[in-house]
Amino acid sequence: xxxxxxxxxxxxxxxxxxxxxxxxxxxxxxxxxxxxxxxxxxxxxxxxxxxxxxxxxxxxxxxxxxxxxxxxxxxxxxxxxxxxxxxxxxxxxxxxxxxxxxxxxxxxxxxxxxxxxxxxxxxxxxxxxxxxxxxxxxxxxxxxxxxxxxxxxxxxxxxxxxxxxxxxxxxxxxxxxxxxxxxxxxxxxxxxxxxxxxxxxxxxxxxxxxxxxxxxxxxxxx
Length: 222
Prior knowledge:
Number of domains: 1
CATH superfamily: P-loop containing nucleotide triphosphate hydrolases
Shape: globular
Helix content: 40-55%
CATH class: Alpha Beta
Largest sheet: 5 strands, parallel
Strand order of the largest sheet: 2-3-1-4-5
Number of strands: 5
CATH architecture: 3-Layer(aba) Sandwich
């Protein structure tokens, strides 16, 4: 905190969060996936359909400092994203007392990218499937459902080029390094308690939304 003034503000926000967040009566649905898999489009459409609240990780109150922490060494950067999940949890707890909550990325993203970065080589070099790194943290509010959007790698690159947005470091790495991308996707698939339900996001957005809403209806009480 002495070196990074923004760290002080993040820690202040974190300390204000009550421990052991309790979910309200409405369902909480998290969406995961690599960039350009359609998370922004789908989460907005689901929010509108369910009259829900849309939240993102890292939450809005700290996202303006993301670029500061992205340039820091890995442990500091990860601490920022981990803290963001707990700050987000307090927002989810509050919002879920009033409406369904849709989340664009949550803990699974933080974990999958960390595991993929810490491991070099192929998918076989990842920690074994039963390893505790794939377990949801006991003290973090859990979503009712986690949906992992996936698209064919070529289609994803095509969408990225079409968007023409500035790439994050992770995105540049995903594009340049297919092994890294495979490690991230496999890490997502190994997550447990809750596990990710995979959704093919390659079809048109109406078709994807239909599939997503069917899964929500099946797994969540609405």
